[in-house]
Amino acid sequence: MRNASILLYGVLCYAVFLLVFLYAIGFVADLPLPRTLDHPLPEPAGSAGDWIVDLALLGLFAVQHSGMARRGFKAWLARWMSPAIERSSFVPTSSLVLILLFWQWRPLPGMAWDVGQGWAGWLLYALSALGWLIVLSGTFIINHFDLFGLRQVWLRARGIGYTPPPFVDSFYYRIVRHPLMLGFIVAFWATPRMSTGHLLFALATTGYILLAVRYLEERDLIAAHGEYREYRRQVPMLCPWPRPSRREARDAAAVRR
């Protein structure tokens, strides 16, 4: 019964994540939903309180997401709950914080740019859709079901010990080290109508991604995967510009000497 309960818990947590992820796409793209980045405008719109609320919501997500993702917090959590549901517990907690952000977000008036509904607008919509596609498909390359806790609870239900997935450096991961984060950045910035509120959201989330990836996530990856340090030297973090091979780098160093 305990294993069945753990499996059911993991499935429910995954279902919550999936619904929140789908809503997030519409929230950012300003689709006809009850609340988005740009609708409905509060009264009065653009007050100092709206800016404070939005920044506080973004900060809450950053603290929760980065804090619970750290190895130390995971080890602490595993002391009083089954390790099989540690990841499943992270998923709905992040989802709940996002639901709070969707619910309490204050759209801000003003427009940084508006390209209209011509070909340029549709091109930006397509680019944003490509960003979301990179995010979702990128999770399957590294192991989608492990990332969101389903693999852990499924193995527990079958009485099989958990083994972490192997380090992956194929497909997107041969071009950039963090394609999921690149996909988020593309999705957040590629919009035909960049309102003040959307611009605040895009700036804050991009800044958070750059800082968290560089100073938190990569530190954990180096500790977990010995080969990651060499991988980091060969593959760029987010911008897919080519880097010299190890042989080319050695030859260049020899020339400089």
Question: How would you describe this protein?
Answer:
This protein has 257 residues and is mainly alpha-helical. It is built from eleven helices and two strands, in the order ααααβααααβααα. It has one domain (2-244). It has a two-stranded antiparallel ribbon with strand order 1-2. Helix 1 packs parallel to helix 4, helix 1 runs antiparallel to helix 7 and helix 2 (48-69) packs antiparallel against helix 4 (86-104). The model is unreliable at 252-256 (pLDDT under 50).
- Helix-and-strand structural type: mainly alpha
Number of separate structural domains: 1
Strand content: under 5%
- Kindly state the mean pLDDT as a whole number? 92
* Sheet having the most strands: 2 strands, antiparallel
Can I get a quick summary?
The chain has helices at 2-29, 48-69, 71-77, 86-104, 119-142, 144-147, 150-157, 179-189, 196-224, 228-234, 246-256, and strands at 111-114, 193-195. By secondary structure, the protein is mainly alpha-helical.
